[in-house]
Design brief:
alpha/beta; Conserved hypothetical protein from pyrococcus furiosus pfu- 392566-001, ParB domain; Arc Repressor Mutant, subunit A; 3 domains; two-stranded antiparallel sheet; 15 helices; elongated; DNA-binding
Length: 296
C-alpha cells in the first residue's frame, strides 16, 4: 500500500485569499510577508516556464527517471518561483517542474520571490551557472549573457559567482571559436583547455587544423599547447621580411648621393614614408675620408 506523501508546505489557499493572491506583487503589499520566504504548495496549472531560461536542453530519459523518483519520494528540493499576478514564473527548478508534470502531481512545493524582470534574469542565470552538469560553452554563454543583458562588469560577475576574473575571461574567449570547435567542446571531444590552446592561434584555418590534429592524435592539453606554440614559431620564421617600397623621389636622391660620394647609399623609410634614415656603405678608411670631405 502506498503511503500518502506529506506536503512540504501549506497550500496557497491556506495563506492567501483569491483577491490577495492576485494583488500581491511587491514586498510592500499587504500579505506579502505571509507569502515570501515560506514554502508553499503551488498548483502546477498556475506555473509557467521562464521563456528566457538559460537551460534549453532537457534530456528526456533523465526527466522520466526523475519523474519516477518523484512518484516514489516526492520533491526533495522546492522550486523557486516569481509571482506574476495570479500566476507564477519559474526562476529555478524547471527540470523538477517538468518531471512533476510527468509524474502527475497536481501541485509542487515552492519558494516565492517578488522580483522584477532584470532581477529574474540575473537570478536564473546565476542559478544556472552554479550547476555542475554544464558544459564549458554553456558556462561561457551564461557568463556572456550576464555581461550583456544584466550589464555586469567582469569584476562584478567575478564577485557574484565566486570565480576568478581570469577564469571568466578565459571562459568567454571560447565563444570566439568556430561553431565546429565549440560543438567539439560541448560533446566532450576536446576540453576547454584544448579550446584555449586552439584560441592562441590567429586564423580560423590554423585553429581548425589544430582541432583536427588534437582529435586525430588524441593529444592531451599540454601536447596541444606545445603544438600550438610550434605552429606559431614556425609561422614567424616562415614569414618573409617585409620590404619597404621606396618612392621614386627617394630613389633619385639615393642615386645622386651615391654618385657624389662614390659609395653605396641606401635610404630606408618608415611604414608611412614620412621619416627614415640614410645608410652609407664604405669599404675602407679612404672611402670614409671621402664621405667626410664632402660633409665638411
Amino acid at each position: 500500500m502506498k503511503d500518502k506523501k506529506r506536503a512540504m508546505g501549506r497550500g496557497l489557499g491556506a495563506i492567501l485569499n483569491a483577491e490577495s493572491k492576485t494583488n500581491i506583487n511587491s514586498a510592500s503589499d499587504e500579505g506579502a510577508k505571509n507569502l515570501v520566504g515560506n514554502i508553499v504548495e503551488v498548483p502546477i496549472e498556475d506555473i509557467y516556464a521562464n521563456p528566457n531560461q538559460p537551460r534549453t536542453y532537457f534530456d528526456e530519459k533523465a526527466l522520466n527517471d526523475l519523474a519516477e523518483s518523484i512518484k516514489s519520494l516526492g520533491i526533495i528540493q522546492p522550486v523557486t518561483l516569481r509571482k506574476d499576478g495570479g500566476k507564477f514564473e519559474i526562476i529555478s527548478g524547471e527540470r523538477r517542474f517538468r518531471a512533476s508534470k510527468i509524474a502527475g502531481l497536481a501541485s509542487i512545493p515552492a519558494y516565492i520571490r517578488l522580483v522584477n524582470d532584470q532581477e529574474l534574469l540575473e537570478m536564473a542565470l546565476v542559478e544556472n551557472i552554479q550547476r555542475e552538469d554544464l558544459d564549458p560553452i554553456e558556462v561561457a554563454l551564461t557568463y556572456q549573457r550576464l555581461l550583456d543583458e544584466v550589464g555586469m562588469t567582469q569584476e562584478n560577475l567575478s564577485q557574484r559567482v565566486g570565480k576568478e576574473r581570469s577564469t571568466i575571461t578565459n571562459s568567454v574567449r571560447l565563444l570566439k571559436l568556430s561553431p565546429d570547435i565549440q560543438n567539439g567542446i560541448r560533446s566532450g571531444q576536446i576540453s576547454a583547455g584544448h579550446g584555449r590552446a586552439i584560441m592562441s592561434l590567429d586564423t580560423d584555418e590554423k585553429r581548425q587544423n589544430l582541432f583536427e590534429r588534437i582529435i586525430k592524435d588524441q593529444l592531451n592539453v599540454r601536447q596541444a599547447e606545445q603544438l600550438a606554440s610550434q605552429l606559431k614559431n614556425s609561422q614567424e620564421k616562415d614569414q618573409p621580411a617585409k620590404q619597404s617600397i621606396i618612392p621614386n623621389h627617394f630613389k633619385k636622391a639615393q642615386k645622386s648621393l651615391s654618385d657624389i660620394l662614390n659609395v653605396n647609399v641606401e635610404i630606408k623609410t618608415s611604414a608611412n614614408g614620412k621619416k627614415g634614415k640614410i645608410v652609407l656603405d664604405f669599404k675602407n678608411e679612404e672611402e670614409l675620408e671621402n664621405i667626410l670631405a664632402h660633409i665638411r
